[in-house]
Amino acid sequence: MRELAAAGIGAPAIAEQLERTEASIRKQASAQRISLRTAGERRGMILGELPHGRLPDELREAVFLGSSDPVAASERSRRRAELCPACGIRDVSTRAGFCDTCYLRRLAAAHREEIATEAGRRELDAARALKYRARRATR
Ligand SMILES: [Zn+2]
To answer: Does pLDDT of 121 surpass 80?
Structure first.
């Protein structure tokens, strides 16, 4: 799940890959502090909210109003059209539920994000080292 989450494919695709319900994926991700944000997504997601563009507008509205189960709605919309949920242009070709192009782009974005996180970690280490040295110098 950690690997799939890092690829930024989103909770519904992870649930499908691991043959679990989306609810169990979200629960476990929350317990393990794993982010389920899709690649490039920055804002915090409301629990149970599906990434924009995954569902047709009328279905998203039905889910929002509580008259449709999001997982079932996602299933129905996927069966209706096997188009990539990210671009809506190409056919789904990966097990993750995206076209090759979108899947690879998401993977690339996840790697870029990892590099950025690592840079942040190095910056923090450097700042801590500075603080430590400053504290020692005043002793
Ligand atoms: Zn696509």
So the answer is: yes
Summarised one tens digit per residue, pLDDT across range 42-98 is: 555 555 545 544 556 666 666 666 666 767 766 666 555 688 888 888 888 887 889
pLDDT tens-digit readout, 13-24: 899 889 999 999
**CA nearest neighbour of 77 among 100, 95, 61, 101:** 61
DSSP-assigned beta bridge partners for residue 83: 91
Spans of all domains in the chain: 1-43
User: What is the DSSP code (8-state) at residue 118?
Assistant: H
Give me ligand 1 centre to Cα 48, in Å: 23
Cα gap 127→29, rounded to integer Å: 30
d(CA 105, CA 31): 28
**Distance from the CA of 103 to the center of ligand 1, in angstroms?**
7
**Cα gap 35→39, rounded to integer Å:** 11
Separation of CA 13 and ligand 1 centre (Å):
13
Q: Using the mean position of ligand 1's atoms as its centre, give its distance from the Cα of residue 94 in Å.
A: 10
